[in-house]
Amino acid sequence: MTRRKFLAAATVPAPVVVNLVANTPQGDRPPALRRPAKITRVEATLLQMPLKERFWMSISPIGGMQPKATRLILKLHTDSGITGYGEGSGGGAEELRRGFAGLVLGEDPYMVGRIWEKMFATTYSSDLVKNGWSRGGVISAMAAIDAALYDIMAKAAGLPLYKFLGAYRDAVPVYVTGGYYREGKGISELVQEVRSYLEQGFNAIKLKVGGITGGFSVQDDYHRVKAVREAVGPQVRIMLDANQGWDVATAIQASNQLYDLDITWLEEPLHWYDDVAALQRVKMNTRIPLASGEGEITRWGARRLMDTGAIDFLQFDCHAHAGITEWRKIAGMAGMCHIQLAPHHEPPVHGHLLASVPNGYILEAFANPDRDPFWFEIYERKPKIEKSVLYLDDTPGQGIEFRRQALDRYGARIL
């Protein structure tokens, strides 16, 4: 036998490559490979719960004069069986009742950019009027829908949301908001409240100032903050939130008087009608870093604010406005402007987002069940906050589960 014939006879046929995943029934595939192809159903529940008292900011109480907490809980179902949860601040409920959720039915949840643009386009379309929607309501509904889409994608990938987005860390610093003006309560009660936060392990606290129209002068605010600083000592960070309570001259006066109390930031110092361009003047005349942006509803408004060069901390709230997709774009813009991110409200979603970017500074939380009862009541599972740090684990998606009894007790089904 020649060498050529020997080699030909010894040649082994190429193995047949079998695509085991392709031939595996959809329901039997590993969770990370069960890729949802379309959204099949939307569920929405609006939670409302009366608060026990009025927690006053500079010019208004949380939840109105008949105070209540509100929350929108959204569930997106897919053809793969994966369900995404999204939360909103309570706005957008009427839009969902009037058919807004129909925009996402049948869509591929991975096409999140297209879905976002489809929803946002209604804010400058005749559909807004034809359907009886409001622009603000649409922006609020988008927040919950967008969050649910990311929850679906992260679960399908078998990853916690912060890792799905590209993790930077797995724990985020947290501050607690308190120190509201409370009817019938003064400085001694304020100090007692703040000490309770220290006992819970918090090392950063935000207080309310700016209540001139409610009878609190700059000097009154100084005494309130000074009493807290003396009670907590020099190691605890103190932030101040004026909630648009001052004019330019008063904001400059107050910030300079409060400077010696070692303030981490002064938030939203100026009245609503001139709260962006005039910040430059405040910035030039104060040594306290400035924070703002919780009221912005898109990246265009956030850009306008950042272009002033006046703010050090941006507080865009994707839980209330436009969703994770918009927040991520704004985070990149802020990074280029050397601005830190300190988003307004809700730890479940913003904890993941801050953990995914290098310019995430700190997360807002609440530690008083009378002020924020939903944080304490509606979750079966949620991120852990311990010693002023929120810890994220490897649970796929946002890592939250809701307590059915609480949703039934406080909720009304919209869809």
Name the descriptors.
415 residues, alpha/beta, Enolase-like, domain 1, TIM Barrel, 10-stranded mixed sheet, 34% helix, 19% strand
Counting structural domains, the number is 2
User: What's the CATH first level of the largest domain?
Assistant: Alpha Beta
CATH architecture of the largest domain: Alpha-Beta Barrel
Major sheet attributes: 10 strands, mixed
Characterize the structure shown.
With 415 residues, this protein is of the alpha/beta class. It has 2 domains: 36-158, Enolase-like, domain 1; 163-402, Enolase-like C-terminal domain (TIM Barrel, Alpha-Beta Barrel), CATH 3.20.20.120. It is 34% helix and 19% strand. It has helices at 3-10, 93-97, 112-120, 127-130, 135-157, 161-164, 187-199, 218-232, 248-258, 279-284, 299-306, 324-336, 347-355, 373-377, 404-410, and strands spanning 39-50, 55-56, 68-78, 83-88, 171-177, 181-182, 204-208, 237-241, 263-267, 290-292, 313-314, 340-341, 363-365, 379-381, 384-386, 389-391, 401-402, 411-413. The strands form 4 sheets. Strands 5, 7, 8, 9, 10, 11, 12, 13, 15 and 16 form a 10-stranded mixed β-sheet that branches. A 4-stranded antiparallel β-sheet has the order 4-3-1-18. Helix 8 (218-232) runs parallel beside helix 9 (248-258). The longest helix has 23 residues, at 135-157. It is globular and about 60 Å long.
